[in-house]
C-alpha cells in the first residue's frame, strides 16, 4: 500500500492538531504517511522530500507550520502536486502563520485552510484525489451527507431547553 | 402561541452564549423558538427556514455564528424580515466572525451586535417588535429604566471602599 | 408628512457616504429627515433629539460616526426605538469606528452595518418598518427581487470576455 | 469543448483581478467558463450552479468575493469538488475577505489563496486537474521551469546598477 | 476635605484594575472620590456629574471603560477640566476600548493611558495637579526618584543568577 | 514672554500635522515654543531639554512621533510635568506609533491623543494650564461653546439637501 | 573573563523568557553579563551603560522589553555596537512590543527577533561574534548541525503513530 | 575587491526600497553585491548562494521580501553568517511580510528591521562588520555623529515658523 497523501509537520507538538487530518484520511481509507520536516532545520531533507513526492505516488501534501510558517510554501516551490497549508496557532492567535502561508507570491500557490484547520485539510486532500477516484468520491459523498446529522442532533438537544415563552 | 423571534445557531456549543438572548425574550414575554441550522451543513434546511419564516409569523431572526460566520448573511439574503447577527468568539478573539457578519455587501444588511453580544441581540429584537406592540414597548421601557439599578448598586459597593484620602 | 426615519451624522463630510441611505429611503417612499448632531459638541441637542424622537413618530434612527464613534451608542442609550449605526472610515480603515459602535455593553444595542455601509442601513430601517406596513413590505420585496438584475447584467458582460479556451 | 474549471465572481468589478486566473487557464489550454453569481443576491442560482457543476464535468471551482465573502464557502457546502477561494480587497486591505473565506468550520474546506491572488488560484486549479492529466502536468512543469526566468532577467537588470563599491 | 480627583467606572468589575489609581492618589495624599457612572445606563447622571465636577472643586477626572468605551469621551464633552481615559481589557485584548477612547474627534480630547493602565492614570492626574501645588510636586518628585529602586532590586536578584560564563 | 507649552517633534515633516497644536495655543494666547528633538539622534539634547523644561517655566510638553515612537515616553521619564503624546501616521496607519506611545509601563504615563490628533493635544495642554489660570479657563469655555457652531452650520447645509420624501 | 554580550531587561519578570538567551550563550562558552535597566526609570544608568559598553569590550547587546518597548531603541541610539531587541509579550499578544522595537526610524536600527524570541537573540549574537572568532564559529556550526536532531527524533515518534491506512 | 555584504531581493520592483541599503554601504566604502533570488522560484540557486556565501567572504546577508516573505528565513537556515531581513510593503501595509520574517522558530534567527527599512539594514550590516574593522568603525562613528545635523537643520527651519505667541 503506497501513500497518496503526505502529512508533514515541523514538530510532534503539532500532532494533536494534525491528528484530525490523519483521522479523516484513515476514515476515508486513503493511504497516507506522516513525517516531520523543517524548512529551516532540515532544508536538504525538505528538498529531497519535495523532489521525490510525485514520483513516489504522492498526490497531495498537507503541510502544517506555525509562526513564520515557511514549510508549506517552500515545499510548494519544489513540486507541482498541490500543497495544502495548515496554519498552526503558536503565537498571535495564529495570524502570523496564516499570513505567512496564504500570502504566497504569484506562481507558487498554497491551498490554505483555517487556523488549526487540520480536518479541513484532510477533506480538501480527499476532494482533490476524488477527482480521479470514483469509489473515494462515493465515500466523500457519504461523509458530506453525514454532516447534517450533527445539526439534527443539535436540534434534538435544543428541544430540551425549556422556557415558558419558548414555543418549540 | 406562535413564535415571533427565531434564534438559530450552528451548534449547541453556542448555547451558553445565546442563552442570554433567550432569557431576555422570555423575560419580555415574547414567544420565541430556538433551532440549530448551518449555512454549510444543511443549506436546504436554511433555505426552507428562511423562506417560511415570515409566513410562519416570525418578525425577527437572531442568528449566531463563529469563524467564517456565514449563517446570518445567508439567511438575510433569503428573507425580508430583519436578521440580527451575533458574532461568536471561536477563534481570533471573534474578530473573524465579526467581520464575516458585519461587512455585508450593499443590498443585504445584517444588524450586527458585539462579539458574543447575545443579550443585546435579544433587546434589539424586542426594540423592533415594540414598534408595533404598545404593551411590549412598556415592558421594554421598564427594562431600560431598570438598567440604572446596576449603577446604583455599584455606587453602594464603591462606598464601601475605604481609603484615608477617599472622600465618599 | 411626518418623518419615520431620522438620519443623523456628525458633519456634512459624512454626507457623500450617508446619501445612499437617503436615496434608498426616498426610493422606498419612506419619509425621513437628515440632521447633524454630535455626541461631543452638542450633547444637549443629542439628548433632546433622542428623548423626543419616538414621540415625534420616528420609528428608526440611523446614526453615522467615524473614529471613536460615540454618536450611535449615546443615542441608543436615550431612546427605546432601534438605532442603526454606520461606521465611517475616517482613520484606520474604519476599524476604530466599527469597534466603537458594535462593541456596546449589555443593555444598549446598536444595530451595526458594515464600514461606510449606508445603503444597508437604509434597507435595514425599511425592513424594520415593514414589519407593520404591508405596502412598504411589498416595495421591499420588489427591491429584493431586483437585486438579481445586477447579476444578470454582470453575466451578460462576462459573456463578452473572449478567450480561446473560454467555453461560455 | 466542455469547461473543466468554473470561475465565479459576484460582480464584474472583480474581473480585473480575476482575469489573471482566466489568463493562466487559457495559457495552460484548460477549458473554463466565467460566471457571475452572488451568495446573497441569487442564492437559488448558486444552489443550482453548485448542484450541477460536478455532473457538467467541472473539476474545480474558483470563487472570488470581497468583504464578508460568503460565496466560496456557500458553494463549497453544496458540492464535493474542490473550491478555491480568492479574497478580493474591497475594504480593510482585504483582511475581512481573507478571514471570511479561510476560517471555514470543520467539514467544509475552501482552498484559500492570498488576497487578490487570482493567478495562484488558476495555478492551483491546474495542479489539481494535472493529478489525472499527464499532458497538462507537462505544461505545468514547463510553467514552473519558466518561473526562474524572471529571476534571471532581474539579475541582468541588477547588473546594470552601478556603485563604486558594488562588486557585481 | 474636598476631592480633587474623581475616579469613575461603569461597573465594580473594573475596581480591581482601577484600584491602582486610587492607591496612588492615596499615597500622594490627594483627596479623591470613586463613583460608578455609565454613559449608556445613566446618561442624565453622567451629565449632572460632568456639569458640576469643576464647581465642586474637581481638578481632574479619571474615567475607565471597556469595549465600545464611551464614558471618557462623553464626560470630556461636558466639562473643560482634563479627562484621563483608561481602556479596560474586556474583549479583543482591550484594543476596542483603546481605539474607542483615544480616537476622539478634533475638539474634545481624552488623555489616554495604556490598556488597564490605572496607575499611570493616577500619576498623570497628580502631574496635572502638581502644576499648581508645590508640596504635591515634591511628593511626586520623591515618587519618581523611587522608581529606580525597583531596578536596583532587580539587579540584585539578577546577580544571584549563576552561569559558568556569566561574568557578573 | 516665556513659553508655557513646548511642542517638540522629530522632523519638520511632522509640522503640517503639528501646526494644529500651535494654531490652537496661539488662538488661546498661550505662549509656546516649537523645537525639533529626537530620542534617537540627539539623546543628550532630549535629556537637557527634559531636565530644564520645568525650571524654564514650561507647564506641559507636547511630543509628536511616528513609527516606533519613543520621544514622548523618553521625555516623560525625565520630567515630572505632564507630557502629551501625538502618534504620527508614518506607517501602518499610525497604529505602531499609537501603541509605542500609549502602552507605557507603570510609573511613566504619557497622555496620548488620537493618531495625528495635534489639535486635541493643544486643547488638552490648555485644559491642564487652565486649572490654575482663570482667564485662560474663560477663553477655553468660549472655545468649547463655539464647538456647537460647526453643527449648526452643518444643519443649515443639510437643510439644502432635497428629496421628495425628505421632511426637513 | 570579560563579557562579550550584555543581556539587559527592564524587570526580573522578563527573566523566564530571557533565560534562553543566557542558556545559549553559556552553551557556546561566550562570556556574558545580565543587568536590569529601564529606559524610563533609570535613563542615566541606560546612558552610562550604553556609552561604556563598547569600551568595556561588549560586542553585542541583547535588550528585552514589553509594551511600549523603548529600551532596545534607546540603547541603540547611544552606541554603535549592534543591539538585538526581544519583544516581550506583556499585552496585546506582544504586538505592541514588536512594533515599538522593530519600526525604528532611519539611522538607528535594532536587530529584532520574534516575540519572546530570546533563544534566537542569543544565536544572533553568537553569529555576529563568530564573524571574527573561528573557534566560536565552529561551535556554532555544531549547533546548527544539531538542529536536525530534533526532526530526526520527531520522525521516530511519528513512526509510533499507528493507523490502518498509515503507511510509515 | 571582494564583497562583504550581499543584498538579495526577489524582484527588481524591490530595488527602489533596497537602494537605500546599497547607498549606505557605498557611503561607508563597504564592498557589496546585489542579486535577485527567490525562495520559491529558484530554490536551488538560493541553496547554492547560501551555501557558498561564507566561503566567498560574505560577512552579512541583507534579504528583502514581501507578502509571505520566506527568503530571509530560508537563507538563514542555510548559513551561519547573520541574515538581516527587510519586510517589503506589498500588501496589508507590510504587516504580513514583517510577521513572516520576524516570527522565526527557535534556532534560526533573522535580524529584522522595520517595514521598508532598507537603510537601517545597511547600517546594521556595517555595525556587525565594524566589530572587527576599526577603520569602518570610525566611519560609522562619523555617521552616527552626523545624525544630529538633521535635527539641527530642522530646528533652524522651525525658527522660521512665526506666531504672535511663539517664543522661539
How would you characterize this protein structure?
Eight copies of one chain form a homooctamer. Chain A is an alpha/beta fold and 168 residues long. Chain A has one domain: Rossmann fold, CATH 3.40.50.1970. Chain A is built from six helices and five strands. The first copy, chain A, has a five-stranded parallel sheet with strand order 2-1-3-4-5, sandwiched between helices. The longest helix of chain A has 26 residues. Chains in contact: A-B, A-D, A-G, A-H, B-C, B-D, B-E, C-D, C-E, C-F, D-H, E-F, E-G, F-G, F-H, G-H. At the D-H interface, helix 6 of D face helix 1 and strand 2 of H.
Order of helices and strands of chain A: EHEHEHEHEHH
Number of helices of chain A: 6
- Report the helical percentage of chain A: 40-55%
Query: Which runs of chain A of at least 5 residues are low in confidence (pLDDT < 50)?
Result: none
Taken as a percent bin, the fraction of beta residues of chain A is: 5-15%
Look at the helices and sheets of chain A and give the structural class.
alpha/beta
Computed over alpha carbons, the radius of gyration of chain A is: 18 Å
CATH fold-level assignment of chain A = Rossmann fold
State the strand order across the main sheet of chain A: 2-1-3-4-5
Tell me the count of domains of chain A.
1
Annotated CATH architecture of chain A: 3-Layer(aba) Sandwich
What is the CATH class of chain A?
Answer: Alpha Beta
Q: What kind of oligomer do you see?
A: homooctamer
Q: Could you give the distance between the termini of chain A?
A: 52 Å
Average of per-residue pLDDT values of chain A: 96
C-alpha geometry of chain A: globular
Amino acid at each position: 500500500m503506497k501513500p497518496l497523501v503526505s502529512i508533514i509537520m515541523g514538530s510532534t507538538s503539532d500532532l494533536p492538531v494534525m491528528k484530525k487530518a490523519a483521522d479523516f484520511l484513515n476514515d476515508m481509507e486513503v493511504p497516507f504517511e506522516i513525517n516531520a520536516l523543517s524548512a529551516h532545520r532540515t532544508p536538504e531533507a525538505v528538498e529531497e522530500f519535495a523532489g521525490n513526492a510525485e514520483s513516489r505516488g504522492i498526490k497531495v501534501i498537507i503541510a502544517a507550520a506555525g509562526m513564520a510558517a515557511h514549510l508549506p510554501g517552500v515545499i510548494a516551490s519544489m513540486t507541482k502536486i498541490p500543497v495544502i497549508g495548515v496554519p498552526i496557532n503558536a503565537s498571535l492567535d495564529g495570524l502570523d502563520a496564516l499570513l505567512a502561508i496564504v500570502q504566497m507570491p504569484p506562481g507558487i500557490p498554497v491551498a490554505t485552510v483555517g487556523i488549526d484547520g487540520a480536518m479541513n485539510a484532510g477533506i480538501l486532500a480527499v476532494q482533490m484525489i476524488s477527482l480521479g477516484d470514483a469509489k473515494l468520491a462515493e465515500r466523500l459523498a457519504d461523509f458530506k451527507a453525514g454532516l447534517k446529522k450533527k445539526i439534527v442532533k443539535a436540534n434534538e438537544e435544543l428541544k430540551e431547553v425549556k422556557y415558558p415563552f419558548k414555543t418549540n
